[in-house]
Amino acid sequence: MHQKRLSAPKTYKIPRKIFKWTVKPSPGPHNKEAVPLLIVVRDYLQLADTAREARRIIASGEILVDGVPRKDYKFPVGLFDVIKIPKLNKSYRMVFDEKGRYVPIEIEDDNLKLYKIVNKTTIKGGRIQLNLFDGTNVLGDNSFKTKDSILMEIPEKKIVDYLPFEIGALVMITGGTHAGEIGRIKDYKIVRSSSPNLVTVEVEGRELTTIEDYVFVIGKKDDEKPVIDLGV
């Protein structure tokens, strides 16, 4: 299925008035604002001049997303996904630019990915399953809490670090007008209604208030920089 460029999500960093149509991502990881792999290969990384060339590259299995070859040119790519191209010995991570649009940055820590815990469920045998922001599920325990982040090795999905959602934690705002900005949690307000809880984030001396769904922990309160390379 195709989608008009003018109505594409704002996270797409593509020309909107040169051509009428673009590719719509398949159902899968992330939300509706994920970018199809074809656009990443052709428009972002400029590995192909045309959609046909991009589809051929993808179909050959030359592009890995989070360590797994993906041959569907509509495969959805989103925040913090790692795109690896072994033939070129290059790896990239999807982050936000200053306008809240996805952009790939070249990285070296391509064996790591950061995940936000969105909820937990108890499965057969009483085991705890962590449900993560991009649709990934892994086994954990009750020491992990919703809104916390975990750092995992990919593609093994082995947990190597745990980043709690707490005052002072280093975070990225992932939605709204301040998407892509990085700061520290200064306050957390639980709203006693159906409205979302609010988080105050201090960014370079400014205080920004956003909803908790838009706050992604990227470092512990004692960390001076994110635990993964974000190009900052």
From TrEMBL:
The KOW domain, residue ranges: 164-191
UniProt keywords, alphabetically: Ribonucleoprotein, Ribosomal protein, RNA-binding, rRNA-binding
Matching SUPFAM superfamilies: Alpha-L RNA-binding motif
The keyword Calcium is annotated on this UniProt entry: no
InterPro entries linked: KOW, Rib_uL2_dom2, Ribosomal_eS4, Ribosomal_eS4_central_region, Ribosomal_eS4_central_sf, Ribosomal_eS4_KOW, Ribosomal_eS4_N, Ribosomal_eS4_N_CS
GO BP terms: translation
Signal sequence, renumbered to the chain: none
Any one GO CC term of the record: cytosolic small ribosomal subunit
Residue ranges annotated for the RNA-binding S4 domain, each copy included: 36-99
CDD domains in the cross-refs: KOW_RPS4, S4
Domain of life of the native organism: Archaea
A GO molecular-function annotation: rRNA binding
Family label: Belongs to the eukaryotic ribosomal protein eS4 family.
HAMAP family: Ribosomal_eS4
Name of the featured protein: Small ribosomal subunit protein eS4
Organism this protein belongs to: Archaeoglobus profundus (strain DSM 5631 / JCM 9629 / NBRC 100127 / Av18)
Native organism taxonomy: Archaea, Methanobacteriati, Methanobacteriota, Archaeoglobi, Archaeoglobales
